[in-house]
Amino acid sequence: MPRRIVIHMGFxxxxxSSVQQVLRDNRKALRPHMRSLLRWxxxxxxxxxxxxxxxxxxxxxxxxxxxxARVLADLPAMPKRVLCLSAEELAGHLPGRDxxxxxxxxxxxxxxxxxxxxxQFPRAEIVFYLSTRAPDAWIESAYWQHVKSSSLTxxxxxFCARYPDAATLDSTVTQIAHAVPCAVHHTRLEDxxxxxxxxxxxxxxxxxxxxxxxxxxxxxxxxxxxxDMDVLARLLDANRTITDAKARKQAKDxxxxxxxxxxx
Length: 264
Description:
This protein is α/β, with parallel strands linked by helices. It has 2 domains: about 220 residues, 3-Layer(aba) Sandwich (Rossmann fold), CATH 3.40.50; about 40 residues.
C-alpha cells in the first residue's frame, strides 16, 4: 500500500505535459521515493473520464469507477513510497468541444477517485493537485489547441463568447475541494516559472521527493508548446476551407511538419 497517493488530474494547457515529461525522464532517480503512473498506463480510465465529461451518464461513470479501481488493485506493494497519477484527462475533455463548456464533470470524477482510493488503501493519505493558469492566457491556449487538433472554425472572440465559463479553473478547484474529503492543492503555471523544475516542482514536493534528489533531476523543456501565429492561422484556414476530414488532417499535418522543419 502506498503511504500517500497524489492525483494530478489537470488542468489541460497548464504545464501538465512538462510535469509528465519530468516524471518520465527521471523515473529511475525517483524510484526510491515514488512511483508515477501517466495517462498511457490507464488509458481506459482516461477514456471513460472524457466520455463522462461529454455525456454525464451513470453507465460511463460506472465504467470510470470500475476501471480506476482495477488500476489501483493491480498495483504492486509500495509501502514506503508515494504513488502519483498524472493525467489532465482525469478531469475530462478540454472545454470548448461541442457543447462541453467547462470542467463541471471534474468534481464528480474527483469524488469518485477519492472514495475508491480510500476504500482500497484506507491508511494512505489521498491528495489532489491541480495546476491552473491565468484565465486570459488559458482560454487563448485552449482555443489554439482546438484549432490545431480539431475542426474548429470559430474565431477567437466567437469561441470565448460560446464558452464563457471555460477558463474558470480557480472556481473548479474550489468545487473539487468541496467534493472530496481530502486535501486539494493548486498552483498557477505563472507562479512556477522561477522554480527549479518549473511546474513539476509542486508535484514533486507533494510526492515528498527530497530536495537533494530534485536537484539531480533532468529539467524538461516546455512541452506541447503553441506554434507561431502564422502557422496557427494556416491551420484555422484549413479547418475553414477543407471539408474532407482526411484531406484536412493531411493538410494540417503538412503545415505542422513544415513548421517543425523550419524551426530546426
